[in-house]
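[Q] Does anyone have a clean structure-token version of this?
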Amino acid sequence: LLADCLATIEKHNLMSPLRVLQALGGSEQSGVTLGMVRGYIMRQINATTRRIDDNTRAIDSYTAEYKAHSDKMDALKSKPIVFQSTKCTTCMAPLDLPSVHFLCKHSYHQRCLGDVGDSCPRCQADHQKLEDQRRAQEISAKQHDTFFDKLRQADDGFDVVASWFAKSPFAFTKFVDQ
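[A] Here you go.
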């Protein structure tokens, strides 16, 4: 019976492992021994270890990506950029003056570029996607009530805080010294 209850709790993630252990070990008369919940505890520890490993790999990946972007930004600030494109990205004809070169290394005849503004037409969809993500993060940063509601309802408040930090809604929060 205990094994079935633990399996159901684990399958549906009904309670945090700490709450389960607190409920089972709440009194000396409960009769639940460590041996009875050993499998459950080991599965929870293994699952947590896997999540930690996954998060560590993600952190390492994000750190490397950040370093690469940071190095690229430093290079853009301090080193000249050589544009070696000889063909227009739109019409593929040889470039002649006036031509427009973007930092993404795409080049266009001014006549082919038209009225697109300050961004490369080929890269504009990617830039728009990033801009939409940034706007969504700014909006979610202002949803304090939603955050606190989720925090109150959660069995594991730390998990809620960690997931919100992962989405980075706090990145746009302004701290005011008083």
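[Q] Thanks! Anything notable?
[A] Helices lie at 2-12, 17-24, 34-78, 110-113, 124-141, 144-153, 157-167.
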